[in-house]
Amino acid sequence: MLRVLVVDDQDLFRGGFAMILDAQPDMTVAGEAADGAEAVRLAVELEPDIVLMDIRMPGVDGVTATHEICARTKARVLVLTMFDVDEYVYAALAAGASGFLLKDIRRYQLVDGVRVVAAGDALLAPSVTRRLVADLSRRGHAVPALVARLAELTERERDTLRQLARGLSNAEIAAALFLSEHTVKTHVSNLLGKLGLRDRAQAVVFAYESGLVIAGEH
């Protein structure tokens, strides 16, 4: 049973999200918070699996709360916001968020999103992914410190990271590299550990910033 903490300063949104998630057979809403400070307190106290996090809130905002929660708990954070603005995407991912969706999604997409993030996969709205990749490619150069860290990976782990950064699932990576899905899962786990990355969302950013993957390259 997935335990979810719902965080939103608007009571209507918060109640609606909680109702949708609590109705799922594999989910339960462990708690609700109206601001970032309360979110951090409840995340530490309740130990949820997933925190559904709003960005713009009075007092402690969602980015700050995400950073604190990721640093102090094992919960994965799925950011849900009305604002499709680059600065929030980068700030949330840098803070440790595992997913980023807009509030105009359908209810089934919200439910699926929680399950995807709980399974350890990255989740970014398509428009967010396109803009993130475009921005990283515009920078035009790899970060030297990250390039050096690529040497820690085996050739197969680098191949896996390339495919992961292009949005492929474990099954798709397995097919592309002619490996078993179990082997791919092992490679993903190993590369995350070696690079000190929390999850696949951070791995995507690392792959582009290190120059391992270049936007538009196949």
Describe this protein's structure:
Helices cover 55% and strands 13% of the residues. It contains eleven helices and six strands. The chain has helices spanning 11-22, 36-46, 62-72, 86-95, 107-118, 126-138, 144-149, 155-165, 170-177, 181-195, 200-209, and strands at 2-7, 27-33, 50-53, 76-81, 99-102, 123-124. It has a six-stranded parallel sheet, with helices on both faces. Strand 1, helix 1 and strand 2 form a beta-alpha-beta unit. Helix 3 (62-72) packs parallel to helix 4, helix 8 (155-165) packs across helix 9 (170-177) and helix 9 (170-177) packs across helix 10.
Helix content: 40-55%
Report the structural category: alpha/beta
| Low-confidence region ranges | none
What's the helix-strand series? Answer: EHEHEHEHEHEHHHHHH
How many E strands?
Answer: 6
For the biggest β-sheet, the strand order reads: 2-1-3-4-5-6
Q: Characterize the main sheet.
A: 6 strands, parallel
Beta-strand residue fraction: 5-15%
Shape: globular
Chain-averaged pLDDT:
87
Instruction: Please give the count of helices.
Output: 11
Distance between the termini: 39 Å
Radius of gyration from the alpha-carbon trace, in angstroms: 17 Å
